[in-house]
Every structure is written in C-alpha cells, then in structure tokens.
Amino acid sequence: MARMVEVTRRKMLQRAVGVGVAVGVYGVSFGVLAVAAGASVAQAMALSLLVFTGASQFAFISVVAVGGSVAAAVAPALVLAARNAIYGIAVGPLLGGGRLRRALLAHLVIDESTAMARARDEPDEARFAFTATGLSVLGFWNAGTLAGALAGGVLGDPRSLGMDAMFPAAFLALLAPQLRRSGAPTAAVAGALIAAALLTVTPAGVPVLAAVAALVPAAAAIRRVRREVAPA
Amino acid sequence: MTWPTILLLAAASYLLKAVGPLFVGARELPPRVGELLDIAAVPLLAALVLVQTVGTAGSFTIDARVAAVGVAAILVWRRAPFPVVVIAAAATAAALRALA
What we know:
The complex is a heterodimer. Chain A is mainly alpha-helical. Chain A is about 75% helix and about 0% strand.
C-alpha cells in the first residue's frame, strides 16, 4: 500500500514538472513582452511572483504597452483573474491545515494546480497534486520570466521583431480551448463586437473591459441551451 | 509601469485566489454564478484579440499583425503548443515588416 502511494507520488511529481516546463516557456514570452511594454526586469519579476496568473499578466502589460491608464490596465486583468476565485472555492476544502498554511497555498490557486487537483479522487492525493503543480509552475513561470526579461532587454526593436503580434496570438491560444463551454461562442463574438464598437471612441483598455457586458447575451444563450436540453 | 499599480494588481489578484481557501470553506456556489464565471474570461480574451490585432492608439489599422494572427489561428486550430503559436506569429510579422 505504502509503495503504491510512493509510485503515485512520483507520477504526480513528474506531471507537475512537465506542466511547469511548458508554463516556463510561456513565461519566457511574458518576460520578453513585459520588458518591451516598458517594465524593468524587477517589475516583470514582481508581476510573475506576486500576481502569478498568466492571462491577467498578459492583459495588464498589453494595456500598459499602449499607454492605458491604471484603471484601464488593472480592471481587465482582474476580470480575467476572477476565475481564480472559482478555483479557490473548488479546491479550498482540499487544502486542510491552519489559516496560515491556507493563506500561503491560496497563492498557488491557478488553472494548472486546480486542474491537477481535480483530476484526483483521494483528498490526500489531490492536495499533493495541487501543491506540487502549484510550486512547479510558480518556479518555472518565474524562471522563464527572468530569462525572457533579461533576453528582451538585448533583443532590440520589439516591433521589427514582430513582438506586438505575440499578444493577439497569445490571447487567441488562451481563448480557443474555452470556446467549447456553454455560452462561450456568444460571449466571444459579442465581446469582440463591443470592443470593435468602442475602439475608436474610448481610451485604451476601456473596449476590453466593456466587453464583459457580453456575458449578458451569453447568459441568455446558456438559458436557451438549457431549455432545449431539458424542456420543462 | 509604476510600482503602486503592480502592487495593487498583486493584492487584488491574491484576494481573489484566497476567497475560497480563507473565507468560503466547503460551500457550493449557485450553478448559474459558476457557469457565468466559467466563461467570464471569454469575452475579454476575444476583445483583446481584436484590439491587439487591428487596434493602434484608438484607431483601426491593418498591418502585419493581421497576417500573424491568421497564422496563429491556423496553428491554434491544429493544436500547436503555446510557444509555437506565439513565436510563429512574431516571425510572420517580423518577416512581413522586413520585406516591406
């Protein structure tokens, strides 16, 4: 029995490192873009260490890069980070331990750690998978950011290197897997339309933030699907 | 980019993560709230794709980014890994600008 647990642990650790390495490469692109957007190496590191939630960090620096205000840069980043609140509620009961331990582990609540924890049925295994994945991603994400931020400083003109095209490509890659969820296609189309309508008339960042209103037609789409699946 | 902004973002991001582990405990969210939060990122990401592809300082521009995002879309559709998508987009834009 004890040996089986040991094998399971090793497997979970291997998976945690695998996910971490993949995220680390993504971290390199974040580091490069953060510096190109005007962040110092220390600021890029602070974002990856303290904010530690990928899509939000990309959204934040993309607005900063085009000269958006504080509110215009922070608000969309926080809407993107709102899913971490759901993840936290989902994995919260698994974390165990005292308040301090929970407060520290809360920082590791992200897509990858939550997914790995929820793939486990045993609470002990789920807790181990969560912690191992969270720490691995935190380590590799920051190592990648540091490498990218240091390299970015010596790369030269971000535009001639096509770095401005990395932002929309990154957001598209983050968006695509979520499009299968109920209401998501409606939310995506409506969100893009709202942003297009506001692009020329509002300050930078506002078109993105206002896109959250697309959740209204998306909610209607979800209700419609539910009525079709389960007629009253 | 200023330090107070970064720290504000860090504090708010942490609070979002900590709501569950520190304040909610073992409680289920109403399913409708869960469903909406599940797709809350979708309209923002779609808006970011649009703004970052054709937006320049408050106006529409068609430039090398459009072709780069087209290449990225094909790669995303073919399930290429994230770094491949991002680097291919940068390479496409860089090549088009070098040729222009």
